[in-house]
Design a protein that fits this description.
Blueprint (H helix, E strand, L loop, with lengths): L15 E3 L6 E3 L8 E2 L1 E3 L4 E3 L9 E3 L2 H9 L2 H16 L8 H13 L4 H9 L2 H4 L7
Antiparallel strand pairs: 1-4, 2-3, 5-6
Length: 136
């Protein structure tokens, strides 16, 4: 299964998935939006791998279980910080940016998980203060 299948195309929670195929049509409405199809239960289980923490990897029951586990992953946290760096700096990180990324990670942890602390750390870093224009 796929944990995020509990949400439809518009992000609404669901427990049943309509089987939208002519063979599964139960009742025809006046227009296509009024059609009613057979449904099946959504299977929201899945498996999480690659978090870098064996306590977090394994079967998940639903997207909420998966989100809770990902929120505990240092690898996920560092990934989010790296993407914030790329956004605010307008470039990918280099080896010289390691202190900036480490400081942003420390700021996040020390603040109890404040993304605002990450942004302040990035925007007051040497990487930001002494940045150069991107070259083509």
């Amino acid at each position: 299964g796929f944990p995020f299948e509990v949400f439809d195309d518009f992000g609404r929670f669901r427990t049943q998935e309509p089987l939208e195929h002519p063979d599964n049509l139960v009742r025809t409405g006046k227009d296509k939006e009024g059609d009613v199809y057979k449904t099946r239960p959504v299977v929201a289980t899945g498996n999480l791998q690659g978090t870098g923490d064996s306590r977090l990897d394994g079967d998940v029951q639903d997207p909420f279980d998966m989100i809770d586990r990902l929120a505990q992953s240092a690898r996920v946290r560092q990934s989010i910080i790296r993407y914030a760096f790329r956004f605010y700096m307008g470039r990918n990180e280099t080896l010289d940016d390691s202190p900036t990324l480490i400081d942003a990670d420390k700021a996040y942890v020390a603040s109890g998980g404040s993304f605002k602390s990450v942004i302040v750390s990035l925007l007051t870093s040497d990487s930001f203060m002494y940045r150069t224009a991107a070259r083509d």
